[in-house]
Amino acid sequence: MSGPLVFAHRGSSAALPEHTLAAYLRALKEGADGLECDVRLTRDGHLVCVHDRRLDRTSNGRGKVSARTLAELEALDFGSWHPGCGPDADEPVDPARTRLLTLERLLDAVHGAGRPVRLLIETKHPTRYGGNVERRLVDVLRRYGLTEQGPDDPVRVTVMSFSPLAVRRTRELAPTLPTVLLLDTLPGWLRLGRLPFGARIAGPGIALVRSRPWLVPTLRAAGHQVYVWTVNEPDDVDLVLAAGVDGIITDRPALALARRG
Ligand code: G3P
Ligand code: CA
Predict the structure, then answer these.
(1) pLDDT at 137
(2) How far, in Å, CA of 127 to CA of 105, rounded?
(3) How far is the CA of 205 from the centre of ligand 1 (A)?
(4) Is 221 helix (H, G, I), strand (E, B) or coil?
(5) Which of 19, 46, 51, 224 is catalytic?
(6) Of 127, 131, 135, 195, which residue has the fewest beta carbons closer than 10 angstroms?
(7) Mean pLDDT of successive 10-residue segments in the chain (261 residues)?
(8) Distance 122 CA to ligand 2 centre (A)
(9) According to the CATH classification, is domain 5-260 in 3.20.20.190?
(10) d(Cα 245, Cα 216) in Å, to the nearest integer?
């Protein structure tokens, strides 16, 4: 493979409901090099793959994810809001398209893929559970043997956050785990291209990359890799390919893979 890694953002989430097992399995089938997910803690301490703080957009529930137990979330439908959920013809809806995905179920699926898979896990902040999110995440990753990874390991995890403190916590808890500092605005210190707290990888949004052509070369010249999100349009895929980024995070992995060639 030459060119950047292609990561499926919340799975193949243009085609299927985001953060469902079906969306991730589809991304693997499409040939994505890796998967991206967001994690939040439930009231009883489980990590679940949900982007929003609230349940309202992506499920038939209401209120905050953090206020519910895992059992309560398991009872909700996380797929029917999406046009790709189905059912196809007279088929019943596949539960993989509607069921809540826990981080552990995602890790099991990635391990079962039978080929190398990269996994980007984003911890969401602010949250009432603060640093417990990273502590719990590192516990789970350690249990799966993923905190000390070698270049030949089939499953390799990178932890991401928009919160520099969350990145620092991850570095303290698991110093060899790669980290991405996500960026949706341009902090003053970034002009020098250096990231704080030992983050190895920069994660700017596509809008930043589009409006600041100097950004990717500056970050790379400072020794950082660059993963750009969320790159869904053909022109944007071409732009980041031409810029020489290291990772493309996209809702449409098949499109990005086809353009990467
Ligand atoms: O991959 C990074 C990207 O997911 C950050 O934004 O809002 O989609 O989590 P968001
Ligand atoms: Ca994310």
Answers:
(1) 98
(2) 23
(3) 8
(4) helix
(5) 51
(6) 135
(7) 93 98 98 98 98 98 98 97 81 88 98 98 97 98 96 96 96 96 92 87 98 96 97 98 98 98 92
(8) 5
(9) yes
(10) 7
Residue type at 197 in one-letter notation: F
CA of 241 to the centre of ligand 2 (A): 21
Task: State the Cα–Cα distance between residues 257 and 3, nearest whole angstrom.
Answer: 10
> How high is the pLDDT of residue 86?
83
In the annotation, is 9 catalytic? yes
- Region class of 148: left (phi > 0), else alpha (psi between -120 and 50), else beta: beta
Instruction: Note the pLDDT of residue 90.
Output: 62
**Ligand of minimum distance to the alpha carbon of 229:** 1
E-state strands within the chain: 5-9, 34-41, 47-48, 117-123, 155-161, 179-183, 201-204, 225-228, 247-250
Per the structure block, which two tokens stand in for 123?
């911890």
Query: In one letter, which amino acid is 92?
Result: P
The tokens for 225 are 């890799």
- Is 224 in the active site? no
Residue linked to tokens 């996209």: 250
Phi, psi at residue 120, to the nearest 5°?
A: -100, 120
Q: Where are the domains of the chain?
A: 5-260
The amino acid at 104: E
Q: H or E segment at 26?
A: helix 21-30
Distances 13 to 21, 34, 65, 188 between C-alpha atoms, Å: 11, 13, 20, 33
